[in-house]
Amino acid sequence: MPEEAAIQIDRIAPTRQPDEAPTGYHRWRNLLFVHWRIPAIDLEPLLPERLTVDTYDGSAWVGIVAFHLDGVRPWWSPPVSGVSSFHETNVRTYVHLDGKHPGVWFFSLDASNSLAVRLGRWRWHLAYQRAAMSIRKTGLRVRYESERLWPGQTGVGGTLEAEYGDLTGGLDRNRPAGQAVPGTLEHFLAERYFLYTQRPDGQLLRGQVHHSPYPLREATLLECQQTLLPAAGIKPHGDVEHVLYSEGVDVSVFPLRPV
Fold first, then answer.
1. What confidence tens digit (pLDDT) does each residue in 58-95 have?
2. Which residue segments constitute the domains of the chain, with CATH numbers given?
3. Distances (CA, A) of 129 to 87, 89, 150
4. pTM of this structure
5. How many Å from the N-terminal Cα to the C-terminal Cα in the chain?
6. CA distances from 124 to 92, 109, 118, 195, 197 (A)
């Protein structure tokens, strides 16, 4: 059964393409979604006052999402070799603003490209960190390694390895296999199109992306050694509860706007 909060909050409107021109484009590939259940009260002190923790099944969820970006570019430029392709690992939770616009709050974003880190911190006011990172695929296995370099505490990172399998789905005959059904935990965790960030002066901002629904695959976590959550001040009360993998999507990026 869909969760009550999923019915009260409109989670379909954010999936629709905005009625304006994108400011940039990305390709997100080889995504691994690893999630822990966590009491919402543990996250509330870590968020801006205006945002509310978004919950599913009575709990908040914290995720580590590791992936590769390719074709990163503004609308007016083709991709640039050495700049437009890099790895990223982010730590995130899910929020909404007064029961509307469910989105993502990032505690940290580690990237393997120095320019992306500087632009992310300056232009998007996001907690980007420069890291040494790698992604290796062998058959149906994928391994992600990361070690933070700058700024702040060095050495934060870890290793994630997973084996992925069949496309998820089968709950809705009107949707292709792999597409998350609204009201399910998979849709709650993966189909997020708004992000929130905050300027140094306290102004809350909201950005948006658009892409086709993720083709999601079942996945089994084989290894998880990480210090990313502790570095963000997050202490899950249990083990990893949910893992997904996706080959990826092509993404349109829209501008940040004051809330």
1. 999 999 999 999 999 999 998 887 789 999 999 999 99
2. 4-15+25-258 (2.40.400.10)
3. 12, 10, 6
4. 0.95
5. 32
6. 16, 12, 10, 10, 7
